[in-house]
Amino acid sequence: MATPLLQPEGHQHSEIDRSGTAATHTPDARPLEAPPVQDLGDKKLSLFRLLLRDKFATLAALVLMFVGLVAVFGPMLVGDLATRQDLLAANKPPFSLDDGWGYVLGSDSLGRSMLGRLVVATRTTISVALPAVGIALVIGSLWGVWAGYHRGLRETISMRIADVIMSFPSLLLAVVVLYVFNPSLGNIVLILAITRIPIYLRTARAESAELQSRTFVDAARTFGSKPTAIIGRHVIPIVLPTLLTLATLEFCYVMLAESSLSFLGIGIQSPDVSWGLMVSQGRQYLQTAWWLSILPGLAIVVTTIAANILAAWLRIATDPAQRWRLSLPRKRGGRRFGTALKGATK
Amino acid sequence: MIFSTLAVGGTLVLSSCSVANSEQVEGDAGAASDTIRVVLSQEPPTLEACEANLTSTGVVVRSNVTQPLVERNPTTGDIEPLLATEWEATSDTEWTFKLRDDVTFHDGTPFDAEAAAFTIDRAVNSDLGCNVEGYVFGDDDLVVEAVDETTLKVTTASPDPILPLRLSFVEIVPTSTSSEEKVREPIGTGPYAIEQWDAGQRITLAAYEGFWGDAPAYPKAEYQWRSEGTVRAAMITSGEADIAMGIGPDDGIGELGVSYPNNETIALRLTGEIAPLDDARVREAINYAVDKETIVSSLYGGTDKVAAQLIPEGVVGHNPDLEPWPFDLDRAKELVAEAKADGVPVDTKITLVTRSAQFPKVTELSQVLQEQLSQAGLNVELKTVETSQHLQYQLRPFVTNEGPIALLVQHGNQAGDAAFTVEQYMTSTGAQSTFGTPEFDAMIEEAGLTEGEDRQSAYEEVFAYQNENVVQFAMIAHQTGIIGKAAGVDYEPNSSSGDELRLSEMTPAN
Amino acid sequence: MLVYLRQRIISSLLPLVVVVVGVFALARLTGNPASLYLPLNATEQMRADFMAREGLDQPLLVQMADYFGGVLRLDFGESLRTGEPAAAMALRAFPATLQLAATTMVIAIVAAVLVGCWAALKPNGVADRISSFVSMAAASIPDFWLAIVGIWIFAITLGWLPTSGVSGPEAWILPIATLMLRPFGVLVQIVRGAMVSALSEPYIKLARSKGASDARVVTHHALRNAAAPALTVAGDLAVGLVNGAVVVETIFGWPGIGKLMIDSILQRDFAVLQAAVLITAIAIFILNILIDIGYALLDARVRPTVKA
Amino acid sequence: MSDTQVDAARHQDRPLLEVKDVTKTFHVAKSPSGNNRLRALDGISLTLGRGETLGLVGESGCGKSTLARTLMMLERPDAGTVLFDGTDPFEMHGKELLAWRRRVQMVFQDPFASLNARMTAGEIISEPWRAHRDMYRSSKDREARVHELLHLVGMRPSDARKSPQEFSGGQRQRIGIARALALDPDVIILDEPVSALDLSVQAQVLNLLNELQDRLGVSYIFISHDLSVVRFVADRVAVMYLGRIIETGTAEQVFDSPRHPYAAALTSASPRLDRSSGGREKIILRGEIPSPLDPPSGCRFRTRCWQAQDICAEKVPPTDQAPGSPLHLSECHFPLDTIRVRSGELTPTS
To answer: What separation, in Å, do the N-terminal and C-terminal C-alpha atoms of chain A show?
Structure first.
């Protein structure tokens, strides 16, 4: 059987060519039908303007801003409302102004204002979830990017460490830390952060391992760029949106994990209060006082959804290759939220 | 008679049915009539008879699978005959028991004095490390002797007026039982024999046809376990179970909850040798500051009783005349201020240690206590720990270096005699006592040697003395347990139901 | 592939040992189990006896050597709590978890693929918006709360399902529904995103313009592209489930490994804890390898090259 | 091009780049025969003179790209030496290495993959200077130089602010060339620089490359499987087969009188820009390229060669000089000048 000597396609793809350039690129695609974007000199300003074009993203941003403000200033405003007990006025239903605005969301099983407790819990929740996600994100991502870029032994060892952490019972870790040390906020943050590092580590490694074989990374190597410079310039900016989207999903996970720790009695301890703890403690009262668990649960759900919407939007807005989509007229705007996540989460 | 409440209906006939298939689906309507379904809060770690004083084991085993020689009537506190028909102290240290001669074990072997002697020897004198040994007997071994088939002689190292009470915790097993290792599924003389244990899922018991007493109303019993109180409650309301143990006041059991005094008392135990708790005025202030009435009425739906002492009514030594400390915040503040004026460091942080999930609403209670003590002008910090950690605070050697501690304790006197309480909680070297006084120690030791009426009044004095002169405790409440009970079952729980759930007292309601 | 498998298995052995050693050491940091297993009024002598009987009076390294010596003879020790062999307890509990996890993942993946594809066909359409909100909400509801609400509604109020337990197929519904929410929510997002990307690729547009039906485009072209990220995420989610759905197992009385682990931790039942961790760690390593293989089959780009 | 050192070096006699016996083996998953060593380069030797264009041709998988990557130090050879101006870059470290990097640059095959889509054209072109901080220190200088480079490759200064998505393939490749020129290299390795482009665009880019060479005096190693393109740009040509160079010579020598049967087959198959020499019959090779994991013994081409004899399986053919042209080398036991290149005769008979 005779075969043509030269393969007709203009695409060289040998077994030893490990460049792995994305096979999805057709050899001669015309430029994407990208309409010229207005001059994006001032990125911040235009980001803001782009945001305003998207109702959902704007709403999400407002919700998050509100949550942030409540976390920072709320506790000052509510004063001792969150701690003032009145056993004789326990479990008052919400949406009644009989006891003043402080009790508009009802009272809990000790007669404390639900509003006040939700506000105080906002700060605790955020100050557990944000640092936990942040620490895991920074450590896991940098480690994963580094391991994936260099491959070889560094990659193998890193992945096995990730395996170890992932198959380690996080509850044991929690009990140990809380036993040997104290169940302080800092320790809970630490546990949640450590156990979530592998998620970022694995995702960042996979992306980075793929990126380090890209041609533009090879190009950077031929200039003599150092690995750290290449990672900083070519790998991290591309991996970051995926990792950030992942982080917003993780933000939700961490809030839930913290509430599960509370459910098992080893999470945030009274008199500190978080949304998760409120849901956990309120579960007993589902049939007698539903608001004890529903209201903090709603806070978790709304915050999570807002964070996810904004993250999906941000992912597009920060990607020059996709940004034009946002400036299209409304009905054609393709991926407004919920874009591709290659990230792994649990 | 012993089981006066026991009613034998026509269901007796059903007991002759062969062992039904054990894969009966719960909720099966047909199952309701001949199987009593109980849901516990945890799976028994073992059913070993010599561990039956553990609540989770005893609730299944005691009086159902195995029986002791004598038993304590939970209502009257009297010791009543069971496998032994009569007993007497033949000397200061020697007791003689007359045993029944019509009893057989589930394997058909007859019960006799030898089996009883073997059991006591195995539980108390062996190296098995039985829980009952540490729980009801001291360091000294017992000398047991089977005089004849139906006569048992027990000799103690020192005089022990409550030996029969102690022996009521020893569940009799046949001599074929291993004395080398513990046995997960014991053979006993009780109305039910263990049929099957599907680890992790359920235990089924079947009525023993050769039982010496009246046959139980339900030919079969099935135990399951769920750790969530709301789920146990739900199983009653949805008809999946007939009896649910350990229901909390907000678990949603509704009308089907039956409350009973469970002999548990909650109190704050104060480290009386660490400032500022070393000042009696501060300890008194804590007693005044706790608003027990409101706690009981608001948190516990008014079913608990405000406590004045560590044991409830019905336990030998309970002092009926003792009044609970009144709630008087002003007086508390005054006492703290006085102490402060005398240089007592009342601003020192006091750690209020509680154990998560120890009893219903413990989290709520601890926050209330923290708030109320703070109102009195004390600096109180809350610390919630899990069981293992809690024990480090509860038992000697205590946690040190954590400053003054107010420990929330839940004490249950299962045995029905104040001796089991005061030796532990009130002597200056008691395993669970932080301090005491020499006079008090002497008083307690004397009380332990008394009998009958003297014993009652001696312990009454001990409790009064504690409140007046020692004040190691700030009493809160005698608790009430709630059992979930399906409408189709007649059962009246009593103070020992939590430790010893007598299936033979349960009958189908008509 | 075989070379890769062998290397992977060898390189996974060490982490396995690390996990067990770590659990061994950490568990013993949480204090002495003696007081948990002895009566409250146990004497010092009884304590000492207990420690000697359980070998807990030995130095940590000696205990560890003893343990690993036993493991090599397949003796994993006995439970302090029940006196049963620890390995038997772990092996008994594990299938319950595995069955639950596997069923949950299969249903979650199928449902997520269907919903995700449906949403992706018309980005920003009504279906898309609804599924986005529902899936995100699903992923952010605390599972224990949902479990209790589920029992309340379906077992108590409606009486359709049993509250808990493992009897009969209908007892699986609530635990699975509770467990699958988060995997489902996250996977819908992934599938939808990947599908939107895939559907906007030129070759898909070409296929569509040639008149291929939506269903065909989705199943023959786009889904294959969307599978890789979905597999990664699904794998990690499954690892989470295999490691024990503690909360769901606790509430529904499901005799699984997660519940066994938390009980063993709280009861300081070291031998059982170690056996349980070991068996889940092995399962997770196997799962990870399967994910790698699946990934390699799907996408040659990430097939690991083995370097000498 | 004011670097005096470079100028001085350029006037010496020895070749700018000398590759001797370079071998590169990859370890891969095992083949059916149990071999896991893939010999991508097997004793490659070649030279490149100043201002010269060396065309490197061969089928996909023959090792061309590996050679390019090795020359760029993206891969390290297992054996052999690479001498650039008499020194081995693989022995270099630190500043010396960085200085060498400046002299050798590369243009990649895929203009879509070789440019980071998140950067603007200006950022891409100026990226090399981030590693070479001594060049164009001020941002003003850089900007000016970027505009200059854009102009050099035929683009507008305003293009500097655009991102790669906004350009066509040809424009992107121009940006890639501008980036390669940013460091003022002496040698540019062009790995299939036009194969991803439309035919009309190909010609434009090739013309640009020729023009740049004339203007800047750079040397090219031009890798392609497209013979017509190579013929258009190359001064000399090297033909690769399964990791070895089996024939080198001037473009005329290799194209018009190939000595190795493979080169003959290759050149016969190429559509010719210049038809003046008269149509040669196309040679159709039988069989697939053997797996590089299990290359044939002796002469690697023997499995597809129509004149293979027993000796071809036993001995690796020696290097053979064409009579009268000492620089026209080939590796064949039976070079083609011993038989007549005539239509019909070369067609395999099976």
So the answer is: 52
Query: End-to-end distance of chain B based on CA atoms, in angstroms?
Result: 24
- State the Cα–Cα distance between residues D333 and D330, nearest whole angstrom: 9
d(CA B378, CA D113): 70
Q: Could you tell me the CA-to-CA distances from D73 to A223, D77, D85, D106, D196 in Å, in that order?
A: 11, 9, 16, 11, 24
Where b means 16+ CB within 10 Å and e means fewer, C263-272 reads: bbbbbbbbbb
C163:B234 CB<8 A: yes
**Closest CB to C163 among B235, B388, B392:** B235
The interface pTM score, or ipTM, of the predicted complex is: 0.80
D29 to chain C, any CB pair closer than 8 A? The answer is yes
Query: Rounded CA gap, D302 and D106, in Å?
Result: 34
- Chain B meets chain D (3+ C-beta pairs below 8 A): no
Query: Which residues 122-151 on chain C approach chain B with CB closer than 8 angstroms?
Result: 148, 151
Which whole number is the average pLDDT over C81-100?
Answer: 89
Q: How far apart are CA D305 and CA D31, in angstroms?
A: 24
CA nearest to B505, candidates B91, B64, B151, B139:
B64
Pair C217, C207: CB distance under 8 Å = yes
Calculate mean pLDDT across residues B290-310.
90
Cis peptide before B397 (omega within 30 of 0): yes
Give dist(CA C185, CA C308) in Å, integer: 41
A333 and C124: CB-CB below 8 Å? yes
3-class DSSP assignment, residue D132 = coil
Residue B234 has pLDDT above 80, yes or no: yes
For D90-106, the pLDDT digits (tens) are: 888 888 888 888 889 99
| Residue among B429, D81, D259, D104 nearest A223 (CA) | D104
Q: Is the pLDDT of residue B219 over 90?
A: yes
Taking residues C253-276, report their average pLDDT.
88
Distance between CA atoms of residues C96 and B179, nearest Å? 34
Strands D104-107 and D187-191: parallel
- Chain A CB contacts of B369 below 8 Å: none
Give CA–CA dist C254/C96, Å, rounded. Answer: 7
Q: Would you give the DSSP letter of residue A34?
A: P
Beta bridge partners of B316: B417
| Cα separations in angstroms, B64 against B192, B193, B222, B501, D56 | 5, 8, 12, 8, 93
Is residue B219 within 8 A of residue B206, CB to CB? The reply is yes
**A287:B363 CB<8 A:** no
pLDDT at position A341 is 36
DSSP three-state, residue B476: strand
- State whether residue C286 sits within 8 Å of chain A by CB: no
Quick check: C178 contacting A, CB < 8 Å? no
What residue has token string 């029940």? C82
Q: Residue B405: exposed, middle, or buried by beta-carbon count in 10 A (0-12, 13-18, 19+)? A: buried
Does C1 contact D36 at a Cβ distance shorter than 8 Å?
no
CA distances for C236 relative to A60, A140, C193, D33, D150, angstroms: 28, 15, 18, 37, 47
Quote the percentage of chain B above a pLDDT of 70. Answer: 93
Residue D99: Cβ-neighbour burial (10 angstroms; 0-12, 13-18, 19+) = middle
pTM of structure: 0.80
Structure tokens at B117: 């002697």
Return the exposure string of B469-499: e unless at least 16 CB atoms fall within 10 Å of the residue's CB, then b: ebbbbbbbbbbbbbbbbbeebebebbbbbbb
B138 class by beta-carbon count within 10 Å (0-12 exposed, 13-18 middle, 19+ buried): middle
CB B117 within 8 A of CB B145: yes
Pairing type for strands D37-48 and D17-27 reads antiparallel
